[in-house]
Here is the input.
Amino acid sequence: MRSVCFILLSALLFSLSACEPSHQQQKQASAANDEEKDIIPLSAEKADGVEGWLNNSTILYTASNPTKTELFAYRIFTGKSKKLYQTDGQIVDVQINAREQMILLQITHSQKTAVVLLNAEGETLYEKDYETYELEAAWNQYDPYQIMVTEFSENWDFHTYQVNAKKDESFLSPIQVPFIHWTSKNTFDYVKEERDEKTGPLYTFNTASKTEQKLEENVLFFDSFHQMSFTVKSASGGKGTYQFETPHTKSPVTVKWPLQTKYTSLAPMEYDYDEAGGLFYTFKQSGDAYKLAAVNVASGETKDLVSLREMEPIQISPNGKYALYGFHFEQIILLKSHKTKQLIIDQKEME
Here is the structure.
């Protein structure tokens, strides 16, 4: 009887172990298929350029003619478009909060610039016109109804206003700096850069307590994403010292990385952040080409991904699987397979 039980148990274990790899292979195949889905490109005759990710399968793009500019949502795996917004002005900037499914537009018309806040269906939540030579809008990713708006005159004098779009309120900010970066619902950081200096001290300001605090000296560059911020300090040999901070790291993670010269000053290479994977994507020069690399902001570990002829802007999808690439985001990189596909193509190529 014992031997019969042993034989039956052995047969059961064998059948279970034989099934497990099959399920595993199915999962791997499913993941691979998800990564390698066919992307249906846009016609260059229809799209001026891609503006960014609304979600993992939907991008926004603009299309214009002499009388109007339109904003569309486009599903890259089905080829279906939906018009969200239309204006007789020119859309000059599009920011997307994929987490909250909201969109912030800057529209120029009649020597004015309008700031327009939309939901994912294209409904207008807030709109305000500014008579300004140039405008900068810093959008709070933690509270998308909070916007810091800076008006510039022709000689680059400026005034900065804090806007509460939900309450339709706007007032002069107690901190008059042109470029700020929100680090929480109630705090933003900024570099106080003198006109003739390349670096400056980094400060933080709390909008609830109205208090300012100095954080660091000699900062070349600062930026923030949701739950991650980084500073850059100049180092020798054309490199900068990057310090990444997240709520999960006890102390900043430091990485030395090449810088580029931009507008006569040193600046980071083009970059974006994948919050889902905790990866900072950026470039480094490699001979006549550029390598796209990923930096783990928790460990500092870096990994080269793909070689590209040019360093151009990138934007990572919310799930970290894809990267829009190009000055008009006309290409898309599959980050797992490292393949690059065209997202906007000429009509002749589509036929």
Observations:
- The radius of gyration is 24 Å.
- The chain is about 10% helix and 55% strand.
- The longest strand covers residues 253-262.
- The mean pLDDT is 89.
